[in-house]
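Handout, section 4.2: multi-component inputs.
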Amino acid sequence: MDTKKVKMLINGCFVDSATSHWEDIPNPATQEILAKVPYSTAGEIEEAVAAASQAFKSWKNTPIPMRARIMLRLQELIRKNLDQLADSVTAELGKTHPDAKGDVFRGLEVVEHACGIASLQMGGYVENVASRVDTYTILQPLGVCAGITPFNFPGMIPLWMYPMAIACGNTFVLKPSELDPITPVKIAELAQEAGLPDGVLNIVHGGKDTVNALCDHPDIKAISFVGSAPVGTLVYNRASGNGKRAQCMMAANNHGIVLADANKEYTLNALIGACFGASAQRCMAIHTLVLVGKANEWLPEFVEKAKTLKVGPGWEKDTDMGPMIRPAAKERVTGYIEQGIAQGAKLELDGRVVSVQGYEKGNFIGPTIFSNVTPEMSIYREEIFGPVLSVVNVNTLDEAIAFTNNNPFGNGTAIFTSSGVAAHQFQNEIDVGQVGINLPIPVPLPFFSFTGSRGSKLGDLGPYGKQAVEFYTQTKTVTARWPKETTVPGEVNTAITLK
Ligand code: NAD
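Output:
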């Protein structure tokens, strides 16, 4: 049987690539080939950008309520198809079905927010800044924007980008992760069905070469990237070096801080989900647990709870953790476990021993916990992006804050405590962009913005929310005088002051 080909979207048509470079997309729990993805040719990328440039001419002047209505229809279509889209995420990425639904749902929330674009894209107006002079600002779309997305949220992260960009009046070229592009293309089918004019949204595929072509293209005005830190840095430098606006959301090492006055049962359950959910293939997963003082005594119970997690294919009802995306990702994780042992950390729980009956070919790895971790160890310094947790013990909250602030990444963190005083100190002194208080994965909803900081982000503005409106628009300020015959100044004014 012919393997299904993932389509590109160019000028309103879902088309096959003419490329000779195709890669298989295996189901990570079985290795069954689901489809193959093309690496778009230079000519196809050019066609996609040309279609977006052409479409921008009329889309930018399409009345804002009409743009909002398309978003309203899109949110309805995504909602109707939520289950099928989650099936697709589970098949190509491996997440459990409820988590896959969450992946699409958190993207859907951005589309819902984009429905209110008219009030979000409102400018400002000040009357009488001088005699009969008014000043007002208009937020105008930039033109063609492009988005480059990672594998770990094929539903949510493309939806972080193009709904807001398009609602603001831009046109868009999306380059989804080559590891799981099936779901983004399915959602784009819904966007077309919702009524997007041809060329407003386009999709090309591939890896480095496709990304470089987008970063270099003179007609692309802004690049939004989410992915690893080394790639994000390259993309940021290349795109901004070419004079484009760029925002790059990147890697993380998120610390969960536990004080002994926290509600123990609630805290341990929340942390298990945050440390091992989605097999920790989340940029907001907790990678390091900082147990303060007597909270260190909770470690054995935490390890026992982690042992109860069921590893298996994402479509089985009682599965807690699905597989890693590819065999290479699993090998990377096992390599880090070996390094942790060699560098002297204490292996409290070894995920390498997991085997899943009936799915022996799956890229499974169970929860893994190291204690006695020190900051020099590679398992702490580097982003593992798998279910390997580092545990450290400190004596005071001050030490926990200093330890966390010493890490170069600033994506997310969470404190567990019943003390408002401690929580307030933490929120004030911690140098991390997204802070949870008794909440382990504090990803803001779309009326705010994603605000990772320091080594986790390049560019000032985050995706979605208010910051996305700023990112995807140019502010134009108009200062206008409508002089009345009787009030026209009767003299030349050579000073800079308005009269
Ligand atoms: P990745 O960096 O390997 O890939 C991201 C995108 O970049 C993909 O579309 C890929 O095709 C492209 N790419 C890969 N190599 C490239 C190169 N040399 N030049 C140009 N483009 C290239 O990331 P990934 O493995 O898909 O995703 C996991 C990473 O994403 C983790 O580091 C995770 O922390 C990060 N992430 C961050 C956030 C956030 O909001 N901060 C969210 C999700 C994921």
